[in-house]
């Protein structure tokens, strides 16, 4: 008992200190209300220990301490989850102590119950039947399984289980001298048991009905020793499950959620999926009492209290809990073997089986070992009816165990008791193994699911790293105090790239891909991460990340593209650093909750990052690469033929006005479609296809952002009608090959990460990939120079599904002084002159 007191006291202390641990400061708001519950529990257990020591000197010494440990554990957990429910549970506990104390004055209470077994069982059935007319639900809307008045509620199905055990034990003991007869033994008991089962099934209380059927079969087997009873019961339970699946929607929902909860994790399977995530979050050591987020799981104080304990005490805590339940079952069966008469033997065996089986049933449901039921975890779950029934069971076991001076009744066959105990212990072992499976083997898979809200809850207490531009200007920051931290975007137009992090809508953009750094679980020493999780169940403070973005040029691009639909990407053509990534229209990540539904439904798709996810036909914008490839072998043949092409009775002319008879430079720079097709025909289909592959049109760029999968053009189709579908980022990388003598750089968005040990750690650029002939690329750049400017450019249009898209490609000339640049701009149904104006402005930086 002293060990139980020490454990519960330590639990209460840790729950008290949890607020300080969460914010890493003693200046926390402490919640000490649960100490009232601890005081009631301590006083109650002291009274019971004193009274049982006086009145039951030969009692089993383990029963009360085990029950005290489990009750205290459950009580502090309920207080931690809900103080109002904790107070109610404490009052129920006080009532239980009073009832047990009064019951200890009746040493012949088991015999009294035996004499009035029919009356007790009938009363239980009548109370259960009364719920059909007068039943209610304490929470307002739900199954009407309770009888209540003035805020006090009783669930008759809870004591009904104990009353059934008493009735069966008395009835079977009375017929012990007779040989086993199906008619004389089984048939009469089926009347009472069948009535109880019918009412429970009608109430949809299927968990209790399953437990009653199991207890009925087990007690009958223990009394008769006929193993076929267990076989028949197993078949009956399976058949009842199949029939119930066909007839009752609630059974169908629970079985479907049990078989495959991943099909509807946010709907019908929400409870079980969140339960498994909670167990996985606990791992081996747990988050610590008061440090987890078990309240995320619905009804954590009752049906899922094991899950709450698993999250906060881990595999170590739940293993201890299961060992306590196993020891309680073993001591109960030992009491049964030593009982002075058959009635008390059956009663002790039935009570022990009831406590263990109900624990296996609900814990197995929490762990997806069994379909989920609505039964409670004895001694631990919130609920007055459950707690009173558990302590009434404890009282009877204590009274039966106080028989040291009596000789055990004759026991001709110990095998049924050993088999029953083996089945119960096997069930507890199975639960323990499945608990370890979810808590260790599947922990990483479950805790990294997008529907796990715990990382976002942690974000409220741990400073998330800052996203900075290349000049260390903050872009996304964390504001507030520990416990109220919020994420804020200081430049909302970059939302499509930087993304968002929200406990409701998840994550997107760089906030998602860099989450490990921003949460401090990557980049920090593993010892630091482990220590923080052990002490606080939290990662260390997040790391700051310096991006390649140039906020000044980004603002310029966003200003020029205001009111347009499209995207713009500006790169350092040499090392692939993304200087500008603009997507319009965009959204404000600071206003997610107010506008999320409207943004998702908007035909403008503001949540889409058009720079990396928007696929657009290249059309005549592919001409500069064809020009570079055609010029690689020497002088180009003279360009002849028309400058426009007819498509579906719509005439597509050059993007910019072009005089007849111009050569390749003007035709390509002005986006003349016929010139593009002539270049493709000059190279041939095979060479053209190979060229597009070399410049990256068939490969999604390796970048920490969602990128659209490339779509290849139909082989042999003219570029005007079937050109490759590419993203603006792909086009910008390809444009860089013109500015850099044929090399396509690898895109880069992260410059450095500020680690706690080494400071700023620079991320080296990845090597470029040769794609075009150096001579051909340089020649193409010179041919496409914009008059009076130190850069080349191409303006082109391409037919799209709903009109056409306009491209602007440009970049600095090979060998030019300063930072080499490459730019790709796409406008949906945009004016070519406007595209040229925007592109030139961003390239010139003004």
Task: Explain what this protein looks like in three dimensions.
This protein is of the alpha+beta class. The protein is 53% helix and 11% strand. It is built from 33 helices and 21 strands. Strands 5-4-3-8-16-17 form a 6-stranded mixed beta sheet, with no helix packed on it. Helix 6 runs parallel beside helix 8 (182-202) and helix 12 packs across helix 13 (305-337). The longest helix has 33 residues, at 305-337.
Q: Mind sketching the topology for me?
A:
Layout (H helix, E strand, L loop, with lengths): L1 H22 L10 H22 L7 H19 L1 H21 L5 H7 L1 H18 L12 E3 L2 E3 L2 H18 L7 H21 L3 H19 L3 H20 L1 H11 L10 H13 L22 H33 L4 H25 L17 H18 L13 H27 L1 H5 L6 H6 L7 E2 L5 E6 L6 E4 L5 H4 L1 E3 L3 E3 H5 L1 H4 L7 H11 L7 E4 L3 H10 L5 E7 L5 E7 L7 H10 L8 H4 L2 E2 L5 H8 L14 E3 L2 E3 L11 H6 L3 H11 L1 H10 L24 H4 L2 E2 L1 H12 L3 E2 L5 E6 L3 E4 L6 E2 L3 H10 L7 E10 L2 E10 L8 E8 L3 H13 L2
Parallel strand pairs: 3-8
Antiparallel strand pairs: 1-2, 3-4, 4-5, 6-7, 8-16, 9-10, 9-21, 11-14, 12-13, 15-18, 16-17, 19-20, 20-21
Helix pairs in contact: 1-2, 1-3, 2-3, 2-4, 3-4, 3-13, 4-15, 5-7, 6-7, 6-8, 7-8, 7-9, 7-14, 8-9, 9-10, 9-14, 10-11, 12-13, 12-16, 13-14, 13-16, 14-15, 14-16, 26-28, 26-32
